[in-house]
Specification:
- The structure holds 2 protein chains of 2 kinds.
- By secondary structure, chain A is mainly β.
- Helices cover about 0% and strands about 45% of the residues of chain A.
- Chain A has a 5-stranded mixed β-sheet with strand order 1-9-8-3-4, with no helix packed on it. In chain A, strands 2-7-6-5 form a 4-stranded antiparallel β-sheet, with no helix packed on it.
- By secondary structure, chain B is an all-beta fold.
- Chain B has strands at about 5, 10-15, 20-25, 30-35, 45-50, 55, 65-70, 75-80, 90-95, 105-110, 110-115.
- In chain B, the strands form 2 sheets. In chain B, strands 2, 4, 5, 6, 9, 10 and 11 form a 7-stranded mixed β-sheet that branches. In chain B, strands 1-3-8-7 form a 4-stranded antiparallel β-sheet, with no helix packed on it.
- The chains are: A mainly beta, B mainly beta.
- The interface of A and B includes residues 97 and 98 of A.
């Protein structure tokens, strides 16, 4: 199975941008890159996904490297409510998601 | 609230007892997933239903685990003869899946936290 590598933890200051990296060097051509986040005591929630092109939505932006071996989730202005574990996931052509340990984001006021 | 709901939210049981958890997905969603999450780890896939059919099971789903989704609506996950190693958060998710599922968004419930003493 294709795997992702993320830093265990990152810190950010409130109202500053945050760049969360993810390496996926074994990605195949049909794998979508998904990001979910999990706030304390909650189930994961969808953030964004993409295949080749950069993507933007109301929550975040996803920058995908040209060779697709890495991607970066960008939170443009971190708030205290963005403190969570962020998971980078490769969606294979099947129906389950393989989560890693994710990156724990701490936002400092 | 029309999100995914799970009951109970917390369950404490003694080793050897049977437990059953319920998941109510978003009403029009045809796919339903069960995951298990232990402390400090990401969720691990257990099983998946499309409508009432259970289409995939992880090797993590031992013989003591059984899941059902009668009539393609709510689902139950039963653990028989619980062991201390079963202590975890059990998460349910649902989706309105397209063929292949690579772009689908899964909507998660709040989870049921199980503690086996």
């Amino acid at each position: 199975d294709a795997k992702t590598t993320q830093p265990n933890s990152m810190e950010s200051n409130e109202e500053e941008p945050v760049h969360l990296p993810c390496n996926h060097s074994t990605i195949s051509g049909t794998d979508y890159i998904h990001w979910y986040r999990q706030l304390p005591s909650q189930g994961p929630e969808y953030v964004i996904h993409g295949l080749t092109s950069n993507v933007n939505n109301r929550m975040a932006s996803l920058a995908i490297a040209e060779d697709r071996k890495s991607s970066t989730l960008i939170l443009h202005r971190a708030t205290l409510r963005d403190a969570a574990v962020y998971y980078c996931i490769l969606r294979l052509n099947n129906n389950d998601m393989r989560f890693g340990a994710g990156t724990r984001l701490t936002v400092k006021p | 609230d029309t999100g995914v709901s799970q009951n109970p939210r917390h369950k404490i049981t003694k080793r050897g007892q049977n437990v059953t958890f319920r998941c109510d997905p978003i009403s029009e969603h045809n796919r339903l997933y069960w995951y298990r999450q232990t402390l400090g780890q990401g969720p691990e896939f257990l099983t998946y239903f499309q409508n009432e059919a259970q289409l995939e099971k992880s090797r993590l789903l031992s013989d003591r685990f059984s899941a059902e989704r009668p009539k393609g609506s709510f689902s139950t996950l039963e653990i028989q003869r619980t062991e201390q190693g079963d202590s975890a958060m059990y998460l349910c998710a649902s989706s309105l899946g397209e063929s292949g599922g690579r772009q689908e968004t899964q909507y998660f419930g709040p989870g049921t936290r199980l503690l086996v003493l």
